Amino acid sequence: MAVITSSIGRKYAMALSAMFLLIFLVIHLFVNFISIFSEEGFNTASHFMGYNPAVQFVMQPILMFAVVFHFLMGFILEVRNNNARPVKYAMNNGSANSSWMSRNMLISGAVILAFLALHFYDFWYPEISYKYIQGNNPDELRYWEELHHKFHDIWRVALYVISFILLGLHLAHGFQSSFQSIGARHPKYTPFIKAFGNWYSVIIPLGFIIIAIYHFVTQ
Ligand code: HEM
Predict the structure, then answer these.
(1) What are the residue boundaries of the structural domains of the chain, listed by start?
(2) pTM (2 d.p.)
(3) Is the dihedral of CA 218, 153, 210, 122 positive or negative?
(4) What is the C-alpha separation between 39 and 36, in angstroms, rounded?
(5) Residue 42 and residue 50: Cα distance in Å, rounded?
(6) Lining residues, ligand 1, CB within 6 Å
(7) Whose CA is closest to atom 38 on ligand 1?
(8) HSE (side-chain half, CA atoms, 13 Å) at 79
(9) What is the pLDDT of residues 141-193, one digit of tens each?
């Protein structure tokens, strides 16, 4: 526990949770992207994820912990940073010495948190209810239909797309920042990490945007 009571320990733990979520996003995009190409493929992949005990009872609780931890820790670090700054704008002189993205991680993070509340209501809760509350039997066919119908309303598609753009901005700073926080700084590798982070923060949100728009226009 001493690890997360020191300032460096907190940044380190924050970065590790971020890296875990970066990997989750790749897997999540990959599985959901199948829905564009193959209804059957998406149903099979979702069924595997939904009923595999290792995914359900090991990965899912770790993921939930990482999400909650990341948001709480991000909030605590931001409040402490602000309190540590005697004159707020003397050290953080707007765009003069930091990017819009880095100064607004809390705002983009809050939008993503609001998106997750809607997203859990849309997908996660109905799934938990279907399996564990209503106690239904596994049904390999339902996933694609459910996902497809969720993107029927333009307001939901719009909210999702706006959230994915904010997610991109959050990742544009967060990706390289997480590497810096674990001390991965090297004249040779840092430019590569930054370039990879820039591509990641465009491709991942764009992939999610394509999924949402694809299902909307093919209703
Ligand atoms: C068009 C984009 C997206 C689609 C179609 C989608 C679809 C889904 C579906 C179907 C589930 C339920 C999985 C289950 O429990 O059976 C789910 C859960 C979840 N999604 Fe998404 N998702 C999208 C974007 C995102 C984004 C951008 C994030 C993160 C910022 C995210 C985070 C999560 C989390 C944390 C869960 C709960 C964990 C899980 O059950 O796997 N999703 N999503």
Answers:
(1) 2-84+104-217
(2) 0.91
(3) negative
(4) 8
(5) 12
(6) 28, 32, 50, 60, 63, 67, 112, 119, 123-124, 127, 147, 160, 164, 167, 208, 211-212
(7) 60
(8) 6
(9) 899 999 999 999 999 999 999 999 999 999 999 999 999 988 877 888 899 99
